[in-house]
Amino acid sequence: MVNGLYTASRGMTNILAKQDIHAQNMANTSTNGFKMARLVNKTEVSIGRNDDGELRQQEMQNLSEVFTSFTQGPMIRTGNNYDLALSSGGFLSVEAADGSTRYTRNGGLSLNSYGELVTLSGKRVLDEAGAPITVKGDSVQFQQDGGIFVDGNRTGKLGVVDFADTKKLQYGQDGLFGNTDPQGNPPIAPKTLGVMQGFLEGSNTDPVSSMVSMITDFRNYEADQKALKAVDDTLHQAVSEVGKV
Amino acid sequence: MIRSLYTSATGMKANQLFIDNISNNLANVNTTGYKKSKLEFQELLYQTIQDPGAGAADGAKSPAGLQLGLGVRSVANQKIFGQGNLQETKNPFDMAITGSGFLQVQMPSGEVAYTRDGSFKISNDGTLVTSQGFAMEPQITVPDGAQNIQIDATGKVSVQMSDAGTTEEIGQIELVKFLNEGGLKSMGNNLYQVSPASGEPESGTPGTNGLGTLAQGFLEASNVELVEEMVAMIVAQRAYEISAKAIQTSDSMLQLANQLKN
Q1: What is the pLDDT of residues A40-59, one digit of tens each?
Q2: Contact yes or no for A196/A79 (Cβ under 8 A)
Q3: Candidate from A54-63, A105-114, B38-47, B202-211 with smallest mean pLDDT
Q4: Which residues pair with A109 in a beta bridge?
């Protein structure tokens, strides 16, 4: 009886976490390079014995993992020389505040006062050797393979990398991806390279599927609430009516 | 629960700012030398509940972590210095810059400001001034009795003297460029100010050193593109709407939770 109360309330708590994810995906529909996330729940039903050796069913539903969907976002033409989109897999390498290398798909870049290529939050973009990229010249061109041409001369190559297991990438506080397992999952060269100058990759949040799953989750939440109330009402009956003479 | 309410609120706020930025671009669609600005968003903090690869209770490693994002923030609005269309005015004191570079004007405070708006006028003492009355730097003074002012592509200003009938050179207009012009600070009145992000100004003769050239009798129109802004407005409005829907849903869920106890 009381088991049912906990099962329903567990379900409700999990759906609240899903709602947090939906809110995040929807809030970032205009964030370039954003990758939407999905919460996957894991339900575990186990049967065990209590201290007295009685057989008991323990039903548990655990909050489990958030999966980031790395599908391609829409290509938005901006015509700006320092806007780069990746039409292939892979990430731009960026130097984080603590000096470590982090990764992003948001190619809205700019130059800083030293002429270094930086993200719009001022983090330096790195070349294939892991060094900052300095652009000194009148015209800059980024080739599809990541080659950087300043005034017609090749000066370097963007550090675009990919990972065998993108599940090990984790969003950091700065909105950049960090690699949680640099030994087991080192950056590798992407299979194909498609650096597109003058484009930005929009958010890959799918408004329709987000809306549909939000509605579904909401109705599930409602159903859980009804189930919880039914259990509660039954308990109420048991407590206050059965004992009546 | 409360988390998703605030997350959606950041989405609504960011898209409100998006609309504000679009409105300013649209309002300046006819402003001479105006450069559109582009708002850029970034994800807000992430709250890590479980790291990827952390051990689960049964000893298995979880392949992905549990991280909840807390919304979105606007990180920068960047000026886009693309060339605007040239409009012919036939006014001898109007000049447009084709290519990169800025004209310099002297502010009343003594500071130098930078502009792409080349609609100059003649003040009562003969100096070239902007519509607000700020003198061009280096200062150019048109002498009395001068006729037929000529500004060539490289910024050389010459006049014909009506009494002598000779052509006289009265000055040289200079342009400046910046390493990162997107980092200039907008001061309003079509003027920009140097900032720590822009780098130091480098001046030179128009047409040299990567600087643009001058076109007398033309003005540079705003580089705002209406279609682009309208599309952005649709996107911003719908994005605002979807975050509002998420708030409504969260609210209904809270309401249901409250109804558990009557």
Answers
A1: 877 777 777 777 888 776 66
A2: no
A3: A54-63
A4: A119
Assess contact for A28 and B43: CB atoms under 8 A.
yes
**Distance between CA atoms of A98 and B78, rounded to whole angstroms?**
25
Q: For residue range B219-261, what is the model confidence (pLDDT) as tens digits? A: 999 999 999 999 999 999 999 999 999 999 999 998 998 888 7
Q: What is the value of pTM for the model shown?
A: 0.79
**C-alpha B43: how far from chain center:** 23
CA separation (Å) from A108 to A202, B100, B183? 10, 21, 14
Q: What is the pLDDT of residue B172?
A: 93
Q: Which of B8, B44, B64 sits opposite A66 (nearest CB)?
A: B64
CA distance B27 to B169: 40
Cβ contacts (< 8 Å) between B49 and chain A: which residues?
63
A10 close to B (CB below 8 A) = no
The ipTM value here is: 0.73
> What is the C-alpha separation between B125 and A125, in angstroms, rounded?
51
Query: Is the Cβ pair B245, A211 closer than 8 Å?
Result: yes
Contact in structure between A159 and A92 (CB atoms under 8 Å): yes
Q: How far apart are CA B254 and CA B252, in angstroms?
A: 5
When scoring A30, A82, A102, A133 by the number of chain B Cβ atoms within 10 A, the one with the most, hence best to mutate, is A30
CA angle A15, A18, A19 (to 5 degrees): 90
Residue A51 CA to its chain's centroid (Å): 43
Between chains, do A20 and B7 touch, taking CB under 8 Å as contact?
A: yes
Kindly report, residue by residue over A138-154, the tens digit of the pLDDT.
Answer: 889 999 999 999 988 99
